[in-house]
Every structure is written in structure tokens, then in C-alpha cells.
Structure prediction request, 103 residues.
Amino acid sequence: MGLLRDAVKDCPLAYLFKRSRKGLWNEKILAYCAKKNGTYMALGPRAPSAWHLVHADSLTRGRGFWHEFWVHYDRLANYWRLEKLGAQVSPYAYLAGCLVSLR
Prediction:
């Protein structure tokens, strides 16, 4: 995902994912910050910035209860992360979306 640096430079990604072990769906938070700042995509000659979160735990190689726990923790925690950013998020709609996306 490529976003203009100006669109996401004030996004508190490190603060919002401080307790995360997986960093799941961090692109959703970056996209919301970019949309909130009014610039969503890099068009024209300006190149987008690439953002990466580095975690010790893998999203795809983990097995067992704790792996699944942290993946689902991040899914639910993104509701509060978006709320902290000022998004108008319905808890019922978000929960319904999480239930639909269960594996």
C-alpha cells in the first residue's frame, strides 16, 4: 500500500499498536489517517512512502492458542484505535464485521 508521506506523517501508529503482537490491519489505520488528512493516494510524479511494522511474531507461521488470541485481539482492538482517531464507528457494525471475517 502506498500513501503520500504528508497524508500519514501525523498518524500515531506506534502509539496505537504499542500493545500489539501482530500488527494486524495496520493498513486500515494508515488509510483512515490519510483519508482524514484529505489525501488518500499518490497520483502523478510524487512517489508514495512505504510503511512497515516490524513484529517478532509472524501472522502466517504461528500456531496454537496464543497465535490465534493475538490475531483476534488486534481485530477487536482496531475498533478502539479507530475511535481514538475520531472515526465514527458503530460497535455493532464493527462486531458484525469481525464475526463475518472469522476464519
Observations:
- The longest helix spans residues 65-84.
- The two ends are 24 Å apart (CA to CA).
- The mean pLDDT is 76.
- The chain has five helices and no strands.
